[in-house]
Amino acid sequence: MSSYIIRGGNRLEGKVRIGGSKNAALGIIAAAMAADGPSVIENLPDVSDIKLLLSICSELGAEVEMLGPGEVRIDPRSVLTHEACIDLVRKFRGSYYLLGAFLGRFNAARMYLPGGCDLGSRPIDLHIKGFEALGAHFEMEQDGIISLSADKLEGAGIFLDQVSVGATINIMLAAVHVPGMTVIDNAAREPHIVDVANFLNAMGANIRGAGTDVIRIEGRPVLPGNISYAIIPDQIEAGTYMMMAPLTGGDLLVENIIPKHMETLSAKLEEMGAVIEEGGDYIRCTMPEGVPLRAASFKTLPYPGFPTDLQPQAVTLLCKAQGTGRMIENIYENRFQYISYLRLMGANIITSGKLAVVQGGSVLHGAPVEARDLRAGAAMVMAGLMAEGETTVQNIYPIQRGYENFIDKLHAIGADIEEVGAAGVRPVW
């Protein structure tokens, strides 16, 4: 099992180029599997979740060809099954998008209940509710197998009881093939929702309203495909590096991003004392010398609110800030598990339910910690970057699920970090 060894205290400065959005890529690859022709997807992030999903597509019969770094051609016409009952599906949550893709294409879908990070209860009830509204019959079989089938699917009005990115995308993936009009009310508005919709529209779908809370999908019997499409930059990767600048008193130019997607974080960093400079496709984040980092209050909310996927990184940053900071986690109930490791390193944090109160200004000391999940793992790396002494981050596989070329990018901006141990991600192409 691989680990990161970090020797903290270095000021980070320089340029970081952000890769494609992992969350958009997962939905777009599944969308390619719903098409009736091939597609070329560009700006794919080089992370394990994407490699796993492409491997699943290949095992199910799709022609998957890597054309170059971050560029893949997917031809799903050779996929003749609606079943994805293979072990790879259990390894990460994003595989569940194949449910919507196969249901729309074949009027049936069957697969293992997917896995992923342990963030508490993340049921797919809303996904199932949407599929049933379209006319599907749902059954949970033994061994955790989800089964969907329908004699006939037709468009419907679907109200999501709570905002759900996964349910919004999954229902879209099914509805693009379903006759009639499907309306998703209380839909998620995240940038990767818009990206998936744009990809589907480029293939021949008719989706309107993506990026608002009401999405309308007019079903099409055929999605011709035969397109090339570039995925948007990764909002969460960008935000993680942006926070590393004030964390280390540094100066980082984060490029190949969409600044509008970062507005909520940019505003918070300015509130804490950082200087934010925006360009057409970059943000420069600088912590002025002699200016204290100030505490702030955060609460996670669906987009355009503060992302839950930046919550652990923000709590780590609050450990550095002067004063009392607060974080309210409104999305996942188990997302404070990593805080025990910050306390081990010397942080002063009290938690109660959804609330974490951080008394900043404590000196962190290096310690052996673990990446409990993808974003918590990134937070542990950040803690190591600001700590005195040496920090070992064990079980780094979750980090590799969402951050491409992590070591190389950190080295380039001045971090003292190395990977030791066996490789954590098996090659899949």
SSE arrangement:
Blueprint: E1 3-7, E2 13-17, H1 22-33, E3 39-42, H2 48-59, E4 63-68, E5 71-75, E6 83-84, H3 97-106, E7 108-112, H4 125-133, E8 137-141, E9 145-149, E10 157-159, H5 165-175, E11 181-185, H6 191-203, E12 206-208, E13 214-218, E14 227-230, H7 235-247, E15 251-255, H8 263-271, E16 275-278, E17 282-286, E18 297-299, H9 311-320, E19 324-328, H10 339-344, E20 348-352, E21 355-359, E22 368-370, H11 374-386, E23 390-394, H12 397-400, H13 406-412, E24 417-420
Helix pairs in contact: 1-2, 1-3, 1-6, 3-5, 4-5, 5-6, 7-9, 9-11
Specify the structural class.
alpha/beta
Give the radius of gyration: 21 Å
Number of helices: 13
**Looking at CATH, which topology of the largest domain would you report?**
UDP-n-acetylglucosamine1-carboxyvinyl-transferase, Chain
CATH architecture of the largest domain: Alpha-beta prism
Termini gap: 21 Å
Mean pLDDT: 94
Measured as a percent range, the helix fraction is 25-40%
Placed side by side, the strands forming the largest sheet appear as: 22-23-1-24
CATH domain class name of the largest domain: Alpha Beta
Low-confidence stretches: 116-122, 423-429
The CATH homology group name of the largest domain: Enolpyruvate transferase domain
Which percent band covers the strand fraction? 15-25%
The total count of strands amounts to 24
Principal-axes shape call: elongated
User: What is the count of distinct domains?
Assistant: 2
Largest sheet: 4 strands, mixed
